[in-house]
Amino acid sequence: MSEYDECTDALVDRTVLTELQAELGGDQAIICAFVRNYVALLPWRVSRLHRALENLDMEDAMDAVLSLKTSSQMVGAVCMNRRATELEISIRLLPNADHLDELRPQVVEIDQFVFGTISELETPIL
Questions:
Q1: Residue 85 lies in a domain
Q2: Could you mention a single GO BP entry for this protein (predicted)?
Q3: What is the total count of domains within the chain?
Q4: First to last CA, the chain
Q5: pLDDT, tens digit, for every residue of 14-52?
Q6: Is this prediction's pTM over 0.85?
Q7: Chain-centre distance of CA 120, in angstroms?
């Protein structure tokens, strides 16, 4: 079983945001805006993956998964990042775009973490 098989950690690692805030000079407003943008775009990014698979568009699928992976990593969405990384590897291993529909179960797994990730990111730190 690989590290990507389960998402048993917290969905969000808040230390990532704390470190980013420190790198940006401590500006909380920038971090809040960054998180709001991620939350607003997360459902769109996942639906883009679905469309790419439906259209058997390898280039768009790769672009969409890299966007999801990178943005998730930057905001500390560890489970979303793991699932996106796993999907990226699967896309790279496909012989051609005709097999993209075989990856639909992985995108459905990603769907299962959207609400929880958004919820954790929108929960204030006490």
A1: yes
A2: phosphorelay signal transduction system
A3: 1
A4: 35
A5: 999 999 999 988 888 999 999 999 999 999 999 999 999
A6: yes
A7: 14
